[in-house]
Amino acid sequence: xxxxxxxxxxARIRFYRDLGLTEFYRRPVSAELAAQLAAxxxxxxxxxxxxxxxxxxxxxxxxxxxxxxxxxxxxAIPPRKPIQAALQIGIEVPAAQRAAALELIREExxxxxxxxxxxxRHKIVFGDGDAAARLLFVGEGPGADEDAQGIPFVGKAxxxxxxxxxxxxxxxxxxxxxxxxxxxxxxxxxxxxxxANTCSPFLFRQIDVVRPEVIVALGATAATYxxxxxxxxxxxxxxVHSFRxxxxxxxxxxxxxxxxxxxxxxxxxxxxxxxxxxxxxxPQKG
Length: 286
Ligand code: SF4
Known about the structure:
- The chain has a domain at about 95-280: Uracil-DNA glycosylase-like domain (Uracil-DNA Glycosylase, subunit E), CATH 3.40.470.10.
- The protein is globular.
- Helix content is about 40%, strand content about 10%.
- It is an alpha/beta fold.
- It has helices at about 5-20, 30-40, 70-75, 100-110, 145-150, 155-165, 195-210, 220-225, 235, 255-260, 265-280; strands at about 130, 135-140, 175-180, 215-220, 240-245, 245-250.
- Strand 5 and strand 6 (about 245-250) form a beta hairpin.
- It has a 6-stranded mixed beta sheet, sandwiched between helices.
- It binds iron/sulfur cluster.
- Iron/sulfur cluster (SF4) binds near residues 181 and 198.
């Protein structure tokens, strides 16, 4: 494989890994295509320059010691950028003072230019909802509607999130909603680690102030920066994790559910775990 193809392949594998996809398989090749590929002439090997003679003296073979093998993946794919360690958990704020405490965090953010996302945003999307909520949702970052209004989850995905909250027997005003990054990434791309690591401490402080009983992470990016590690979403769903002493449940992002509504059943199962932890029962129909 030539170096250009290899680099492109590695970049693609990194991209999939950042999405939480780590298992790959070879698509079966039809006999017709296999015969066609076999019939194509191989690219002639490029002449390689003669290696320069080594100037190092070689130790006698008897002094040779076995070294443990380095992990193969580190040779193939450079290590991921580290995910920032979480801050220490803040002191508990009395419920009556939580709205004011959130306002102080918002003031500290100010007209933020701490990361590159500030260049394309219209409005900082800080958070929305009850400052003393029992349930807190964390998404990835603002989209176009949120960027225009300065409120999280107000577009189509927001409408679906509202429906999910209502199905749990709650109103949107009773929960708190925030994102990993507070400014819209260009073309709704996934936030870069530098951006998420710069912005997420503000989210952690919001969580410390609200001090919910349950957090629901919406999608792989929220799960990654709350757990501090990347793992496939499928392996994280369906159970209760812990984040800064709070129960954490992980489910699909509503935008993903809009693209693949078949997964709504799975998301509802995750929300039922949150309801069980909160002692909630779904509203009676009719
Ligand atoms: S995403 Fe967060 S850290 Fe980056 S500019 Fe916006 S508010 Fe500041």
